[in-house]
Structures are given as structure tokens and as C-alpha cells.
Amino acid sequence: MMARSLRVGPEYIDKVKSALGRNGYYSQQSLPSDMEFSPPTVKNFLTGKPVDSLNFIKLSEKLGLDWREIAYKEPENPQAETLSVEQQFRLEKNRDGLQEAWNIQHKKVSQIRLALMIETGTTNKFQLEQQFQEETAKLINLEAELDKVEAALKLASPTKIFEKKVQVYPFKSQPTNGEVSPFITGAPITQPRYFFGREKELKRLFNLLKRHPLQNAAIIGKKRSGKTSLLHYLKNITTTPAQQLRPEQKSDWLPHPKNYCWIFVDLQDARMQSREGLLKYILKSLNMQVPTPWDLDHFMDVVSDNLHCPTVILLDEISVGLERCPELDDSFWECLRSLATNHTGGNLAFVLTTPESPIEMARNTGHSSPFFNIFGYTAYLGALTEIEARELIASSPIPLTDEDVEWILSQSCCWPLLLQILCRERLFSLEEGETDDNWREEGLRQMKPFADLLDS
Known about the structure:
- The protein is of the alpha/beta class.
- The protein contains 19 helices and seven strands.
- A five-stranded parallel sheet has the order 4-5-6-3-7, with helices on both faces. A two-stranded antiparallel ribbon has the order 1-2.
- The longest helix has about 35 residues.
């Protein structure tokens, strides 16, 4: 939970003062007149005395500084439980083993979820739903065990474990062993390097999010049109190291990306389908304490009092939340609207995905909350432009002939998923040394479940 006031760490005071001239402020007096802050506030900021957290963040941003870096950090708790080297080693080994098991189980659950999305047969769908519930229960148990181990380690070393907890909850980091597939067809694209196109939509979305107050947006598109991949790209592109991107891939969408907090919510996740589960996840993602007693009012109090940095909540598959989650009722959505519009100083925005207009979706599912009226910008996802599609095809590790490129463009109509399928089949045939055109027939067969993308 963020403190109500912050101060510059003693070791950063000289750095803060030198940033004045570098940003065109040649005296302390010119800064408050420009920012409309009182001289005492600026003087306290520059001399390492406490100032209001929101003022601290704004002053840091004005000087081009990362407020998290320069803020004074309390020393670790001297009364924390001390573990022997052997005890800590055993706990860390147990944690790493549980982490690996969680990764494997999470992948298994994701595969079953994907199969459920594709399956249309009643019998098979029922069996998959049963399997999904069983495997999800195992995943939840693994996470509970992992949380216990991390809690024990946190008692011994709060700072170290706290940083890890932010990174892994609740979607743990994925293993990096093995070669990454250049063409991804069965899951959303999470690594920016493999995401192509959507330049127009990205410009509009980041323009809404880089200025104060942050504004809300809806992403509308057919199933498998790339909505979830776009959310992941928004969340990851601005902080991904340059060496993990393609050459010339744009990443400087935001002036101070490290100041932003991004929260990805998959409403197909069973843990996100209850009011308590979803709101506790949001609080933990914000590093805020879950209140006791727990209820919607206390959630509002905690977020209203402590959210001072730009925060974007990405709501994927909002239709699932409206159609299947009775706890996510109108009062719940009204609470979120109130936070975004009245209680967080313009620092909170929502970006959601839906197959149709949020207002129409709410109306069709019996919801009347004004939450769905706050989305002033709507991005409609269609096919990629031909230039964007050609860039995706050109990423193949083995170059494709002009004839193959033109055939893939024609058959896919530049839809990203269909491009990925056809490129995957062609790459596989090239790697296997095949010289016939059987890959085209196989590619068309693999496209059939997604033929609705080609409907006008």
C-alpha cells in the first residue's frame, strides 16, 4: 500500500536538484509557478522532506525522474524472522519446484480452455468442462502451496520476496526453455516481438492513456480477431527491453512507462468470476492491503486512498463477466465506474474487449449499469493492412517465395490468425524439405474452424 506522503531518499537529492536545470527550471521558484505548486511543497521535495504522494509523483514526472527510484525506502524489518542458510535454501528449492509445477499445470489448463473455445460437440464439451474444473482445482491448490512458501520466505526477507510476488501473481512467469515458435495460432501472443500490425489502433489507445486524465476504451472484434493479443501488447510493449523486440519496433508510446501499473484480467479465469476473487486480485496487483472486513465499500476506500499512479485495468472477454457471473452485478460495475470517474484523480482507466458494443452487450445481458457508457473510444479490429500482413509473413525464419506470399495474402484476406496458420504450415513444409504444394491443402483445412473471419 502506498503511503500518504513520500520523500526523496538522501542519496538522490543531488540528482533531483540537477534535474531542475536539465528540464529548463533554473530556480526553485520557476517550478511551482509552472506546476501551480506552493513554494514550500517544492522546497520540501527538493530537500528530502515529506510531501503528499500525488504531488511527489507529479513533480518527479515533470523532472523526468522515476518516482519509485528516488523515493526513500524504509529499511527492512529488523525483527523479521531469521532463517538459517540451510532453511532458506530448502524453502527456495521448494518454491522453485512449486513454481515449475504451477507453470506446467497452468499450461495444461490453458490448453483445455482453448479446446473448450473451439469444441462444438455437446458430449465432448461436457467432458472438457469436467476436465477443466478438475485441472483448475489442482492449479488453485498449487498456487495456495506456493503462496505459503513465499509467505514464509517473505517473513525472513520481506523486500526480496515482495518483488517476486508482484511479478508472479496470479499468472506465474512462464518457462523460457526451448525455441519459441515464430507463428502462434493456439494462444494469445504475449511477447511483443511476435505481434504485428494494429498501428492505427495503438496510436489512438496510447494517446488516451499517456495524458491526464486517463480515458477508457473498448476493443471490439470477432472471436479470434486478436483482441486478447492486443491487450497483452498494450501491457508489455512499453517496458520490454529493446533486445527482445524486432529492429525498429516502436516501443516509446508513453513518456514515463515505468510509472504505469497494468492489470490484465481474464474473465474466463474461474478465479476472476467472483466479486471477491476479482477485487482481491486487483488489490494485490496494486500492492494494496486486502481490507478486513472484506466488502465492496472497503475496497472502494482502499483504492480511493492509495491509487496515485497511472493504472490501466485490461478486462478481457467482458461478455463472459456479463453472461455467466451473477456476482458481477450492476452495483459491482457502478463501483468501478465511480472509482474511474470520481475517486482516483484521473489515474484509473479501463480497456475492455467485447464482440459488440459495450452498451449493447450490457443491454442484451440484462445489465443497466452506467459503467458501460464511459468508453468514449472504440477500436474495431478487422484484418491487417497488406503492409502489416507482409511484415508478418516476412518474419519467417526461412524466406517464402513471392508466389507463396501472394497465395497466403489471398487466402487469409490478411486476418492475423489465418496468416499465422498458413505461414506455420508453409514453414513446417520447408523445414521438412517438402517440395510439393500439399501444405496449401493442409493450411486451408486448418483454417476451416475460423472461416467466419472471412465473412463480410
